[in-house]
Amino acid sequence: HDVDIPTKKATFGMGCFWSNDSLFGATLGVIRTRVGYAGGTTKNPHYRSIGDHTEVIEIDYDPKTVTYEELLEIFWANHEYGLTTKLKRQYQSMILYHDDEQRLVAEASHRAVQSRCNETLRTEIAKADVFYPAEDYHQKYRLQGHKDFCRSIGLDSSKLQTSHLAARLNGYLVGVGGMNQFDQELPKLGLNEKQAEYVRRELERNEGGGLAC
Ligand code: MHO
Question: Who lines ligand 1 at CB under 6 A?
Answer without folding.
Answer: 16-18, 55, 138, 213
